[in-house]
Specification:
Layout: H1 4-11, H2 17-41, E1 46-54, E2 60-70, E3 73-84, H3 90-103, E4 111-116, H4 120-123, H5 129-136, E5 141-144, H6 146-154, H7 159-176, H8 179-191, H9 209-219, H10 221-231, H11 234-240, H12 243-280, H13 290-293, H14 308-318, H15 321-327
Parallel strand pairs: 1-4, 4-5
Antiparallel strand pairs: 1-2, 2-3
Helix pairs in contact: 3-5, 7-12, 9-12, 10-11
C-alpha cells in the first residue's frame, strides 16, 4: 500500500522480545504517570472498578480501572495491575491497592464509588474490600457488576449438573491438551463432514465460554462418541451413550445459552443506551445557560441568542423585585 520505501523503513524497526517488552513497559509507565498526575494535581474525584483474577500461570492479580471527569468529559482509564503474592482476601486486596495509591498521594477521600464482581472477598460485610474502604471513606458508593453475577450463579449448580459439566471439561481437556489427539479428532470430523472440526477450550476466567463449549460438545456428540470408541475410552463412551446423561447435557446447553444471550444482549443495550444519551444530550457549553440557573444575576444578554421579544421578557423577569426576593 505504501510502497517498497515504507517497507524498508518498517523492516529497520527492531522486533526482539526485549525491545517489545521495553516498549510495553514505557507505554504502561506513560499511561500511569498521565492518569495519576491528573488525579493528584487537580484532586479529582473518581470511581474505581476492580477485579481479582488468576492467570494461566496460577498467579493472582488485581486489576483497577478508574472513571473521572476531566474538562467536562467522562474518562475511563486502566490504572493498575498488581500481583497478589499471598492470599486473595479482601484485606490483601485492600492493602495492595492502598500501598499503590499512597505512592502517588491519592487519598481515599477522592473515592466516590467502587464497583466489584460481587465475590465474598470484595463485598463481605466484615472483611470485604468495600467494607474496609468504607471505613476510610463512609461516603463511598459500592456496586456490583451485574453481568458477572451470572457467573457466580453458574458456580452453584446442583451436584448432578455440576458432575456433567466436569465430565464435559474432562473430555475437552483429553483432546485439546494432546496435539496428536487434536489432529486425529480433526481428521475424523472432516471425514464425517461435521459442521465443526475442533472443540473449544473451556476457560474459567471467561465465563461466557461455558455456553460455547457445551454447545460445541452437543453438536459434535456423534463424532466424539466415534472418536472415543476408536480410542477405547470406555469411561467417556459410557457417558455419551447414556440417554439421561445426554439429556442433562442438553439442559446445561440451554441454561448457558440463555445466560450468554442475556449477557450479550445487556451489553448491546448498554452500548445503545450510551449512543442514545449522546444523541439526545450532546456536550453543551454550560456557561451559555447561566441565566437559567440564576436569572437575577448580572448577565449580558447580548452574548445569548435571544430574539427581541425574548430579551424583553428576560429583562422584565430579572427586574421583578418580588420574584428576586422569593427565589434568590
Amino acid at each position: 500500500m505504501f510502497g517498497d520505501d515504507a517497507k524498508k523503513e518498517i523492516m529497520k524497526i527492531p522486533h526482539s522480545d526485549d525491545t517489545i517488552k521495553n516498549r510495553i513497559i514505557h507505554m504502561s509507565d506513560d499511561i500511569e504517570k498521565t492518569v495519576t498526575n491528573k488525579l493528584t494535581t487537580n484532586k479529582l474525584y473518581f470511581a474505581l472498578q476492580i477485579d481479582e483474577s488468576t492467570d494461566i500461570s496460577v498467579i493472582a492479580h488485581v486489576l483497577g480501572f478508574v472513571r473521572f471527569i476531566d474538562e467536562n468529559k467522562i474518562v475511563n482509564q486502566f490504572l493498575f495491575c498488581k500481583q497478589l503474592t499471598e492470599r486473595t482476601t479482601g484485606h490483601n486486596v485492600f492493602d495492595s491497592i492502598s500501598s499503590y495509591l499512597d505512592k502517588f498521594n491519592i487519598t481515599w477521600d477522592q473515592y466516590v464509588g467502587i464497583c466489584t464482581d460481587g465475590a465474598p472477598s470484595m463485598v463481605g460485610s466484615i472483611k470485604g474490600f468495600t467494607t474496609l474502604a468504607k471505613k476510610k471513606n463512609p461516603n463511598i458508593i459500592s456496586t456490583h457488576c451485574f453481568l458477572h453475577r451470572e457467573s457466580l450463579i453458574s458456580k452453584t449448580l446442583p451436584i448432578t449438573l455440576k458432575s456433567v459439566l466436569d465430565k464435559i471439561v474432562s473430555m475437552v481437556n483429553y483432546i485439546k491438551s494432546r496435539p496428536l489427539q487434536s489432529r486425529l479428532f480433526k481428521k475424523l470430523c472432516e471425514s464425517m463432514e461435521a459442521q465443526h472440526v475442533c472443540l473449544l477450550l473451556h476457560c474459567e476466567v471467561r465465563w461466557l465460554s461455558r455456553g460455547k463449549v457445551l454447545n460445541r460438545i452437543l453438536e459434535l456428540k456423534n463424532e466424539l462418541l466415534m472418536f472415543f470408541q476408536n480410542e477405547g475410552n470406555t469411561v467417556f463412551i459410557s457417558f455419551l451413550t447414556d440417554d439421561i446423561w445426554c439429556v442433562k447435557m442438553a439442559y446445561l446447553v440451554d441454561i448457558f445459552n440463555y445466560l450468554n444471550s442475556v449477557n450479550a444482549g445487556m451489553q448491546e443495550h448498554l452500548a445503545l443506551l450510551e449512543e442514545k444519551i449522546t444523541k439526545y444530550f450532546p456536550e453543551l457549553n454550560i456557561e451559555k445557560y447561566d441565566w437559567i440557573r440564576n436569572p437575577f444575576s448580572t448577565i449580558n444578554t447580548s452574548s445569548y441568542e435571544f430574539t427581541l421579544e425574548e430579551e424583553e421578557e428576560f429583562i422584565t423577569l430579572t427586574t421583578d423585585r418580588t420574584l428576586k426576593i422569593k427565589f434568590s
